[in-house]
Design goal:
single chain, alpha+beta, Ribosomal Protein L9, domain 2, 2 domains, 9 strands
Length: 147
């Protein structure tokens, strides 16, 4: 019997997969628990429509993320802080500081967790910071730190 999985089933498949299983397993285990439904023509067409809609939505999100990455690549965030004569800062610039400055200067909200800063900035000058815009898409943000 062919069924469409509604929820992920361990060792069987993910949501939306069409799998071939025994009749008893489907009727006695999967159907009563709401884990699967029969793979009839109507259900398969519905699944294809849903997958097409999800793919369309994902493509739209990717295009928006690419546009945001283009913007971020052209931005320069300027931060002023206190520091010594040698250019060493009295504190440090963290990803939260960069996120707040990006919001204040350009009106774009980026979560601090998406800003990849290996270690806090403790020196004046220019630094390029990687910003994760989408799971496989990153942008480089120029950060200028001055006293």
């Amino acid at each position: 019997m062919k069924v469409i999985l509604i929820k992920e089933v361990k060792k069987l498949g993910k949501v939306g997969d069409i799998v071939e299983i025994s009749d008893g397993y489907a009727r006695n285990f999967l159907f009563p628990r709401g884990l699967a439904k029969e793979a009839s023509e109507g259900n398969v067409k519905d699944l294809k429509k849903r997958k097409a809609a999800e793919q369309k939505k994902k493509n739209k999100e990717i295009k928006e993320a690419e546009a945001l990455a283009e913007k971020i690549n052209s931005f320069t965030v300027k931060l002023k802080t206190k520091g010594g004569e040698t250019g060493r800062l009295f504190g440090s610039i963290t990803s939260k500081d960069i996120s707040d400055a990006l919001k204040d200067q350009y009106g774009i909200e980026i979560d601090k967790k998406k800003i990849n800063l290996p270690s806090p900035i403790k020196q004046t000058g220019e630094v390029f910071v990687e910003v994760k815009v989408y799971p496989e898409l990153t942008a480089n943000l120029k950060v200028v730190v001055s006293i």
